[in-house]
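Mods, move this if it's the wrong board.
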Amino acid sequence: MCEVYRLFSKDWEHISDYSDEAMLELYNSETYGSSVRELNGYYIGKRWLSVTVAMWKEDIEQRLLTKHELYLDGKFPEWWLDSVLKGMMPGW
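Not the wrong board. Structure tokens:
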């Protein structure tokens, strides 16, 4: 998932930490509940991923966005889009 988190933190990459230590820090946070530094790029991406997917859901419900458009963008891995969009209502 770190590959995807990095996509969502791209706007902050100039101040973010994407080291192996940052990756391990996020893993420990998700697994054991330990703290994460604010400039951990993967953590930033994870937060913005959640916000973005929630906005997509609203936009799809309001017919302002289609699943097809997200695939056409080419920015996100298809395996990830498949898993996210599969959970949304059929026909979106």
